[in-house]
Amino acid sequence: RKSLQKDSSDSEVENEAKGKLLSKKPAWVDEDDEAEENVDMTHRYRKDFMKSDAEKVLTKKKLKRRLEEQFQRAMGGVPAWADLENRKKSKRTASDSDSDGDDDLLCRTGNFISNSESLPRGILKMSTCLPANQERFANGRLATVQFHPSAQVVMTAGHDRSVSLFQVDGIRNPKIQSIYLESFPIYKACFSVDGEQVIATGTHHKMFFVYDMMSGNIIPIQKVRGVEERFLRSFEVSPDGSFMLLTGTSGYLHLLSMKTKELISTMKVNGRCTASAFTPDSSKIYSYSKEGEVFIWDVRSRKCLHKFEDEGSLEGKCIAVSKNNQYVACGSASGVVNLYTTDVCLKENHPKPVKAIMNLVTSATCVTFNPTTEILAVASRETDEAVKLVHIPSYTVFSNFPVFRRKQIYLAQSMDFSPRSGFFSVGNNKGKALLFRLKHYSDF
Known about the structure:
CATH architecture: 7 Propeller
Region (Disordered): 1-46
Distance between the termini: 76 Å
Radius of gyration: 33 Å
Number of helices: 6
CATH superfamily: YVTN repeat-like/Quinoprotein amine dehydrogenase
GO cellular component, one term: small-subunit processome
Shape: elongated
Strand content: 25-35%
Organism: Nipponia nippon (Crested ibis)
Family: Belongs to the WD repeat UTP18 family.
Helix content: 10-25%
InterPro entries: Utp18 (IPR045161), WD40/YVTN_repeat-like_dom_sf (IPR015943), WD40_repeat_dom_sf (IPR036322), WD40_rpt (IPR001680)
C-alpha cells in the first residue's frame, strides 16, 4: 500500500513537471512561421521525401513531420536530447530557482561569447601592411628594425649610414625624422630602455654614437677607457636600463654603465663569444660561444654561475631569453634552434631542449620572442624567405607564414615585435622594414 502511495506521488510530481515544461514560454516567436505555406517537393533537395506523385506540394507542417520521421528512422527512435518529457524527468529534483536561472541563461548571449585569451596554434591571423619605412627605404641592407619601448614608433638603421624613425599606424607609417652618420655604416642600433636615446655601433669602428632624441644631439663616444678592441659591433642593453654589454673579440664581454658609458667590468668566455642576452630582471647574462657553450653570468658579482652545452651545436650564432624568463632559445650554424626552459639551463651541464626547431636549413642568425611568450620568431639571413614563427607552448610552426609562391621577405636581417605584440616587423637586405599586423593582439 505504501509503495502504491509512493508511485502515485511520483506520478503527480511528474505531471507537475510536464505541466511546467509545456507552459514554458518560447524565447522567440516568428510571425512568418504561423503563416500556412506550401512547399514545392519536386526540388532536388526534397525529392527523396516524397512518398508518391500526389505529394508534389506539401504544407510546412507536413514537411516538418516528414523530416522528423526520417530522422527518427535514421536514429532508431527519438534521441534523449530531443525527448523533452524524459529530459524534464531527469531534472525534476532541481529547484525552481535553478530552472529560472537556466531560462535567464538561454535568453542572453552577451557575456558568454568572448575571444580565447591564449593564442591558437596552426594558422596565425595576420595582415600585411605597407613597409614600416615606406616613406624612406634604406639604400642596401637594413641592419636593425626595432619598435620604441613606449611610443607607437619604429626605428630603422642600416649600411646606408642612416637612422630613421617612423610613426606606426599600419596604413601610411609617416616618417618622423632621419639622421645621417657620415662614413659610419651602422652594424646595430638600439633604443635605450626609457626610449630617449638610440645607440649605434659601426661595422668597422672603435667608436659608437649616442643619439639623444630629446635634445636632438648626436654624441660620439670616441673610446671607452679600459676597452681595448679593434672594432665595437655587437652589444645588448639591459632591460632595467642600467647596463650596456659590448661583445669583444677573443671571448671578452665588457659591461658598461648605461648612464656614463664607462666600463664597470670585463668578463671572458672560453673561445669566442658570438651572442649574449640579459634575463628580463637584468640579474643574469646568457653568453653563447662559437664552440656551442652557454655561460650564465651574475651581473652584480660578474661571476660565472653555470655553463652548459647547447645540444648538437657545432657553432653558436644567436640567443634570446623570453620576457617571462621561462625559455632560452639558442640558434646554431646548422639552422637548428634549441628551445630550453631556464630552470633546466641553470642546473644541468647537458640539458635536453623541450623542442629542437628544425625548420631552417641555413644558419640561424636571429631569434626573438614576442612580449607575451606565445611566439618565437627564428630567421636565417643566408637564404630568402627563411623566417618561421613558432607557437608556444605547442612548439609548432604557423603554417601560413611566410606566404609561399610570393617572395616578400628576401634575406631577413633583423626582427622585432611591438611592445604588446600588435605588430611584427622584419628588416631585409633590400632596405625594407616589412610590417605585419597580428590580429590576435588588439593593442600596439
